[in-house]
Amino acid sequence: MAEREFAPRNPGQQTGPQNLxxxxxxxxxxxxxxxxxxxxxxxNRVLGYDAFRWSYCSLDGGPVASSSGLAIDTMPLEAxxxxxxxxxxxxxxxxxxxxxxxxxATLHRISRSGVRLGAxxxxxxxxxxxxLIRDRRCTVHWExxxxxxxxxxxxxxxxxxFVIDRDLYTxxxxxxxxxxxxxxxxRRHGEATAQAVANQFNLDRVRSARESQRDGSMARISTYxxxxxxxxxxxxxxxxxxxxxxxxxxxxxxxxxxxxxLFEKWVGCPPRQFxxxxxxxxxxxxxxxxxxxxTEIAQMTGFTANTRFSQAFRREYARTPxxxxxxDHLPEKISG
Length: 336
Fold this sequence. Notes:
Elements: E1 18-24, H1 30-47, E2 52-58, E3 62-65, E4 71-76, H2 77-80, E5 86-91, H3 100-112, E6 116-121, H4 123-129, E7 138-139, H5 145-151, E8 157-158, E9 162-165, E10 168-171, H6 176-189, H7 191-200, H8 226-237, H9 245-251, H10 256-266, H11 271-289, H12 294-300, H13 306-317, H14 321-324
Parallel strand pairs: 1-2, 1-5, 2-4, 5-6, 6-10, 7-8
Antiparallel strand pairs: 3-4, 9-10
Helix pairs in contact: 1-6, 1-7, 6-7
């Protein structure tokens, strides 16, 4: 029996409320979903009418548990899809859908009907496996970037907070969902409305799609003096082939003692120790979220020998690289 096609839609010509669907996978991040929903609710309040509506769905409906244990009741995907303008895939560590062939076929029919597809955090894996990213740019949470690039080397994945490329909307997860939604609000209802919504959540500014995710060592870099920021950026750009501290100073046209004082005051350690920590943080991420060998990870983080890498890693984390290699850190592989 032929599968039912969904009626074509043209969300760009709609004048009524826009309808967003959130397709929930088991163990999805509740924070990532709430970051989308709350700005939508606040927009309706600011505007005084329902500019947005939203619903939750899963393949067959029923309660879906988040990673924190909170469960959300969902409608069946096929019953929800005909009324949607956007459908966002919300996934955490589990990214292999049950009845994958049926699931992928349904996503393709939804896409053909004109519904704009998106993903939150690891949901980008689901769209990639279904062949729905194609030649578009996308993003994924920084913890999953190494695994995504290894699994889908032909897809252009970026490190930005969110990426909008034509009819594809991807968010890196966490609070970045709010940034993507604020962009949608701004495009449809104006920048002033988006800022008013941001003010409701005490956000000091609306972050743009040009901004990168901040992993470990980048967390507070924007608060540092300009010279220190430049030194850290040089370190981050040369993880595989580390620069000598004197070379960093030469490139910045600065005295080494000046750089050392800045690191001691603002970071709390000498530049060499901070640089090593940057490399080890990168190694930790690769160990947790890629299938690269320990030798490959050591080389990618500037360690010429496994023994030196293991010693430095144990000093920093009080554990060995091999002990980090646990399957529960990785998104569940899509098999077959």
